Recover the amino acids of this structure.
């Protein structure tokens, strides 16, 4: 229950952190909030030779408006900051609703959005939210930088598109447009536990109240976060009522591939995914009809 | 400063705990919880699960309640920590949180209690007039296997009331 020995460097600059990662590749890990990495180190499931502590890089933390329609969140931004930020609450209602489900207050005081996304736990809420919002992620290395679409970023359980020398430094999420609604729901065994299934969805309306675009993503429903393509597409152009949410829920049940575990069988996870999808879509649609 | 050795690498750190500055040489892999207990002999911070689930090791780090088993001592360099030993002003008087826990029977074995006290200290500093649901949410990251939480919730309501006066 104690970590194996490693070298520790508190980064003095982003450039230094990236140079160290370039030199040591997969042997090195970035230490952000440490709320996922350190438990695995305590179990010795992860034994990095070098830990690059990026907590001193305060320039990598913070939320800023980017143009009129999107929000950029520094990778080192802690959940605590997001929970207390009025702008985030207004611009990213899906994230606001999901935040209280993410672990416990002590974990959220320390955990960072970038650390979570780079860890890419399929049961985690944040990857599904970034996928539902069609966000994009900024990766930097000594070679330069690139933006990666959420759909391209998550490659499977604990696996991302990041190269061994890259750091996730920023996340860009579109701000909720007018006449849209969002909803996040999950079922967990206890408050703060990993979700048995979680559903994140957004609904954007046309002038006549029909659905212009809906996006549905799920957590703990497969090898990584799952974007329910067919279910999302089924709602476009329709007025969302009970028949539409039921049809979308059935499509979701066919699009996911939950693993099942000792607490929830695959069939139970699939059942819950259908129930939550129908409820979350109904709620998101009602919120959109009301204008928020 | 760091040595070059791959194993047993050490760092000199200066950390303020309960208002007292300490300077120590620590191994890179030393958990902050073990640093507090073994190096500073502040054994009030308890260690339960050592993977961030139980909350027994909760301390206040730069004003926020955090799990000390999920941080390394080296990360505390230049930072300020409050542990359960720093809660009461002196040895003669309990902090209102501690007094309320005693009066309301908020503990039995007491193993989880230091973590709960530090969690609730940070919570009540930020939320002086909590309702019961907020208290339960704030407590959700601390496991207590004795009390069933009801008496802890009552203690926190009593403490909040007294702290407001």
């Amino acid at each position: 229950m104690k970590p194996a020995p490693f070298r520790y460097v508190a980064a003095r600059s982003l450039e230094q952190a990236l140079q160290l990662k370039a030199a040591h590749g997969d042997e090195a890990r970035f230490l952000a909030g440490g709320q996922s990495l350190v438990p695995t180190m305590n179990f010795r499931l992860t034994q990095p030779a070098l830990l690059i502590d990026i907590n001193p890089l305060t320039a990598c933390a913070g939320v800023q408006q980017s143009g009129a329609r999107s929000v950029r969140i520094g990778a080192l931004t802690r959940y605590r900051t997001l929970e207390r930020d009025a702008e985030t609450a207004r611009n990213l209602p899906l994230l606001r609703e999901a935040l209280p489900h993410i672990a416990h207050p002590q974990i959220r005081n320390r955990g960072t959005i970038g650390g979570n996304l780079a860890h890419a736990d399929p049961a985690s809420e944040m990857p599904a939210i970034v996928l539902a919002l069609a966000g994009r992620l900024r990766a930097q290395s000594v070679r330069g930088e690139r933006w990666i679409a959420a759909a391209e970023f998550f490659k499977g359980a604990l696996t991302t598109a990041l190269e061994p020398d890259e750091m996730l430094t920023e996340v860009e999420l579109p701000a909720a447009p007018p006449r849209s609604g969002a909803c996040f729901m999950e079922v967990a065994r206890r408050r703060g536990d990993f979700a048995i299934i979680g559903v994140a969805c957004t609904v954007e309306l046309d002038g006549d109240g029909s659905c212009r675009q809906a996006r549905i993503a799920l957590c703990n429903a497969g090898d990584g976060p799952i974007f329910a393509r067919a279910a999302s597409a089924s709602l476009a152009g329709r007025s969302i009522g009970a028949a539409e949410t039921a049809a979308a829920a059935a499509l979701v049940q066919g699009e996911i591939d939950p693993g099942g575990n000792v607490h929830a069988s695959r069939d139970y996870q699939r059942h819950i995914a259908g129930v939550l999808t129908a409820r979350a879509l109904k709620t998101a649609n009602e919120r959109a009809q009301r204008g928020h | 400063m760091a040595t070059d050795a791959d194993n047993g690498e050490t760092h000199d750190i200066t950390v303020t705990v309960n208002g007292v500055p300490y300077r120590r040489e620590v191994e890179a892999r030393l958990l902050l919880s073990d640093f507090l207990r073994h190096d500073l002999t502040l054994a009030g911070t308890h260690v339960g699960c050592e993977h961030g689930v139980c909350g027994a090791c909760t301390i206040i780090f730069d004003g926020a309640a955090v799990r000390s088993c999920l941080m390394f001592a080296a990360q505390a360099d230049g930072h300020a920590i409050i542990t359960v030993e720093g809660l009461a002003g002196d040895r003669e008087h309990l902090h209102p949180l501690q007094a309320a826990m005693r009066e309301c029977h908020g503990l039995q074995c007491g193993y989880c209690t230091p973590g709960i006290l530090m969690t609730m200290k940070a919570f009540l500093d930020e939320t002086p007039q909590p309702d019961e649901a907020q208290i339960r949410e704030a407590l959700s990251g601390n496991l207590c296997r004795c009390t069933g939480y009801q008496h802890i919730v009552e203690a926190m309501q009593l403490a909040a009331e007294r702290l407001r006066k």
Residues 266-290 of chain A form the longest helix (25 residues). The first strand of chain A starts at residue 7 and ends at 10. The radius of gyration of chain A is 19 Å. Chain A is about 35% helix and 25% strand.
